[in-house]
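INFO batch 0412 | record 1 of 1 | parsing
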Amino acid sequence: MSFKRFDSEDFLVSVDSVTAGAFTGDNPVFGTTVVTSSAQTGGTSGLYYTSVQKESNGEVQFSVAFGDSNGSGSALFDAGIDGKSPTSAVYSQFRNIVLGDESSSFAFEGYYPSNPKYYCFNF
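INFO prediction complete | emitting tokens
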């Protein structure tokens, strides 16, 4: 997957402000009763967890994923292949989305972590 950089005509500068709640019912505050679910389907088990509010009748509010370049933090897909696990898959997917290149590494102001890992929150 590759991406095209924005051109100057792709930007719109506006002083209009649009605000809305991020959660069910246009609510800006997450509910008081939170339930997480790891019961995923379609081969995604262990890749991410969803969070719902009981007040929202089970509607997913956000999901959380953990990615680790070396595959730490989850069981291996195959015991014979080091480093290939759900966490390495999550790391690789987001690296490809953000950087557009499977051989690139994340850098933070010139610093390249030796074992990059992250948490990703999807709303």
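INFO post-check: Residues 86-99 form the longest helix (14 residues).
INFO record closed
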